[in-house]
TrEMBL record:
GO terms for molecular function: ATP binding; metal ion binding. The keyword Metal-binding applies. It is a multi-pass membrane protein. Keywords: ATP-binding, Magnesium, Membrane, Metal-binding, Nucleotide-binding, Translocase, Transmembrane, Transmembrane helix. This is Manganese-transporting ATPase PDR2. It is found in: Membrane. Signal peptide: none annotated. SUPFAM superfamilies: Calcium ATPase, transmembrane domain M (SSF81665). InterPro entries: ATPase_P-typ_TM_dom_sf, P-type_TPase_V. GO terms for cellular component: membrane. It comes from the Eukaryota. The chain crosses the membrane at residues 127-148, 174-193, 205-225, 245-267. The keyword Transmembrane helix applies. It comes from Cardamine amara subsp. amara.
């Protein structure tokens, strides 16, 4: 017995000369094992499933948000640009900073400690994802077109030149406000919390970033600080148009939530 223990001790402490195959010590994982666990239960397997589902869900929501932002940006920079609608350098900078802050805060989400019986969608290339993208983009497109058309009614005497450089006007202001609404609503609607990750309220950085974005939009639409809107190159909104934008914004978020819920129920696994 003592001789056997000495031999095992020598094998465990053997380093080798680098030319022979390394010896596997007791407790080490083999080359075919994806992880090492020194537990007598299957708890590590449960942890890996939870973390894998959390990673998959986070990847899916990132692809959805990026896809929607890309569709909206391509429409603004192509079709609306030909109609003379433009965004200034200040507008693009604020949009970029807001998007970066939301992406950074959304990555702070933690997986839940309980393993759900529900399974997430296994791939980005699923019918649910494409229908959700098309449905949400259709709602945003309708909201954007109607808002710009409503703004054009209040500036009939001003001619919009497609090839002219950017200058503040009512159409550009409305299109920028709608784009900001779309960014914040996209992150809020497509965030996937329970039963895999923390909810929006539990993810404090993301929750506060959404509140800050919604508060900023409310301030610029209501024109509470005229100096701030002037620095952002935003013109004052007529009272009727301002009320319509706030009301349409609430209906817009409601329809986005409805589209996401219908797609999720219809194609849940």
């Amino acid at each position: 017995m003592e001789t056997t223990l000495r031999m095992m001790d020598r094998l465990n402490n053997y380093v080798g000369d680098g030319r022979s195959a390394p010896l596997v010590k007791l407790g080490d994982a083999s080359m075919a094992s994806p992880f090492t666990a020194k537990h007598a239960s299957v708890a590590p397997v449960k942890d890996i499933i939870r973390q894998g589902r959390s990673t998959l869900v986070t990847s899916l929501q990132m692809f959805k948000i990026l896809g929607l932002n890309s569709l909206a940006t391509s429409y603004v920079l192509s079709v609306m640009y030909l109609d003379g609608v433009k965004l200034g350098d200040v507008h693009a900078t604020i949009n970029g900073v807001l998007t970066a802050a939301l992406f950074l805060s959304i990555s702070q989400s933690r997986q839940l400690q309980t393993l759900s019986a529900e399974r997430p969608h296994p791939s980005v290339f699923s019918l649910y994802l494409f229908l959700s993208l098309l449905g949400q983009f259709s709602v945003h497109l309708i909201f954007l077109i109607y808002s710009v058309k409503e703004a054009e009614k209040h500036m009939l005497e001003e001619c919009i030149e497609p090839d002219a450089s950017f200058h503040p006007n009512l159409v550009n202001t409305v299109s920028y406000i709608v784009s900001m609404m779309f960014q914040v609503a996209t992150f809020a609607v497509n965030y996937m919390g329970h039963p895999f990750n923390q909810s929006i309220r539990e993810n404090k950085p993301f929750f506060y970033a959404l509140i800050a974005g919604a508060g900023f939009i409310t301030v610029i639409v209501s024109d509470l600080f005229r100096n701030l809107n002037d620095s952002l190159k935003l013109v004052p909104l007529p009272q009727g148009l301002r009320d319509k934008l706030l009301l349409w914004g609430l209906l817009y978020v409601h329809h986005l939530l409805l589209v996401g819920a219908v797609a999720q129920v219809g194609f849940s696994r």
